[in-house]
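Quick board copy: two proteins, each given as sequence then C-alpha cells.
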Amino acid sequence: MFLNTHFPKAKFYWYEGKLYDWSQAVLHPMIHGLHYGTSVFEGIRAYGTARGPAIFRLPEHNDRLFHSASVIKMTVPYTKEAVVAAIKQTMLENGLEAAYIRPLLFYSYGNLGLVPKASPVELTVGCWEWDAYLGEKSLQGICVYILPWRRVHHSQLQMTAKLGGVYVQSTICGLEARAQGCDEAVFLNLEGRIAEGPGQNILIVRDGVLKTNDKSESVLEGITRTSILEIARDLGHKTKVGPISKEEFFAADEAFFTGTAVEVIPIVRARDASDPNQTVKDAVIGDGRPGPVTLEMTKAYKDIVGGRNKAYERWLTYIRD
C-alpha cells in the first residue's frame, strides 16, 4: 500500500485513461523508464481563485511536454487536447482547489535493451497539495551551494527538454547542497558561469536591471522565468538576458530563484565550492535580505496566479469552466 503522507490530499491518479486509487500500484517493475530514466514530464501548478482552481500557463506546459517527447523520440499516443482533459479530470476528481500537477510520459513495459523498441509510450497524471517547495522559511531567503560539478552542457543534450534521466544530476547535487548545510544547489556551466539550480532558473538585480541567462548557458528557459521577465517589463523594470559570471552573481543587489515548484524564492547567501583547489567561501547577496524587486515580483506573481490581475487572465485555465 502506498500512503499519501508526502502527497497531501492526493486521492486518485490518472493512468492510461483510467483513475486509480492513490494507494494502488499498476506499473510493472521492469518498465523501461524506471531503469533508464526514459521519461519526460512537466511540473504545473493550479491556484485557488474566486472562479475556482486555475492552472497557470497550461498550454505552454503542454507544448513543452510534447517538445520534450520529441527530443527523446517518443510518439505520443495522445493529442494535446487529451492531455489537457486528463489533467483537468485528475484535478476535479481529487477535489483540489490548489495543487502541483505532474504529467509524465514514459517508455513502459516491453523490453530492457537501451533502445525501447518494444516499449510503448504511456501517460500518467498525478496532483496533490504542495505549499512552499523549500518550506515557509525559504520566503525569507535561502543559502545556496555553488557546486564543484558543472551542469549538463547544451552541446551534450537539448536542454530545452525536461528529460527524466537528466534530473539524476539534480537529485545528487541537491542532496549534496543540503549535506553542506545549504538550502539548495547552484550549477555553473562548463564555461564557469552561473547556470541554474537543480530545477530553478536564477535571476539577479543589479543597478535596477533584472537579468537572467538563456539556453546558451546550459539552462532550461523556464515558464516561470519567462513570465517574470514579462511581468517585470510591464512594471517598468529594465530586463536583460545574457551570461552571468560568478563575480556578477556575488555583486548583485538581489538574486532569486524562479520555477513552478519554488515560484519566486530569494537567494540571500551563497557558499562557493566551485573550485576544488580553493577553500570554500561564504558570501552575502545584497544586504542579506529579500530585496524590493524580489518582493515586488513575488507579490505580482501571486496576484496573477490567484486571478487578481485581470491583465494576465490569458495565463489561467479554469478547470470548472
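And the next:
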Amino acid sequence: MREFDIEKYVRRLGRFHVEQRLNMQAHHAADIFGPGLVHIHIENMLWLHFFIKRLLQVCGVYGLGRRNTGRFVVTHNAVALPGLPAALEGLTLLQLTDFHADFSATAMSALIEAVRPLQWDACVWTGDYRGLTHGPWEPAAAELRRVRDALHGPVYAVLGNHDPLEMADALEDMDVRLLLNERAAFERGGARLWIAGVDDQHIFETDNLEKAVDGIPAGEPVVLLAHSPELYRKAAYGGIELMLSGHTHGGQLCLPGGWPILANARVPRRMTRGAWRFQQLQGYTSRGCGVSGVECRYSCPPEIVLHHLHRAPERL
C-alpha cells in the first residue's frame, strides 16, 4: 500500500478541509460523546453492541438476524426530473451504500450475487465502507474490490462517517470516482447528468455543497450524493432536485412493520428509509448493504436500489 500523499489532497480539496478531516479522525473517531450533528455516537458503544448480541442469542433469534443480512431486496425507484434531456430518459442509477465491508463477508458475497443479473447505466456509492469508525481500513478496501469487480460502468462515490480520508487512494485505484465536495459529468447521447458529492456532514462536518455544485451550468440535471440525509434542508434551499443518501441502515433492528428503534440521524422519521420529498427536493435514503454494531437485521432487509430517471412534465 503506497504512502498517503497529503499534499495531493491539499491541492485538490484545500488545506483547511484536509487538516479538519485528519484532525477529527485522529481525535474523535472513537468517541462515544463528541462533535457532529448527533453528539452521542452509538456506533462506538461497543459494550452496547455486545449486550444486544447476547440478548438476541438468549432470545433465540440471533441466527435469524444473521441470515437476514444476506437476504437482499432490489428496490425500483422512479424519479421524475424537470428538464431531464431526452437522451437521458430512462437512465438508471444503481445505489449501494453502508457496506461496512469488513464486518460481514457473508453480506458482501450475497451482494455480489444479487447485483449480477441487474442492469444500470452508472453506479453510486454513498459511504460507510469500513465497519468501525477507527482502526485499519485495508480489510474493508479488500472486500470492496470484490464488489467493484462485479460492477460494470462508472462508479461515483462519497465518504461516510466511518471512512478515513486515507481510504481515498484505495477507492480510486478501484476505478471509483470519489467526490469530495466535487462533481463529475455522466454523458449519454450528447447530454450530461451531473453527479455532485459532498464529504461527510454527520461527524466530520467537512461537507461543502456550494463547492460541490460550483461550475455546473444552470438548467442541467444534478444528482447529489450525501452520506446522510441530514443535508436535506441545505440541498432543497440550494435548488437540488434529487439527493441520494444512506447512513441510517433504515434502522437495521426494527420492530415488526419496519418501524426503526433508532435511526441515528437528525431528520424526520419519514426520511430515514425509502423515498421522500421536501419542497422540490426528492430524496432517497437506502437501508444499505451491510450492518453495523450487531451482525443482524430484523424487519429491515438489506437493499439494492435502482433509480430510474424520467422527464417530468414542464411546470406551468
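Board note added afterward: The mean pLDDT is 92.
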